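Q: Sequence in, structure out?
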Amino acid sequence: MINKVKNSIGFVYGCINIKYLLYLWQLLLKYLY
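A: Exactly. Output:
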């Protein structure tokens, strides 16, 4: 049970990180061009 919760938190955290990185990348492209 605890492992499932940890895996869920890790999965959500990973998704948030990916979205954040994509957002930063888009800002960088807008800034450069």
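The chain has a mean pLDDT of 91.
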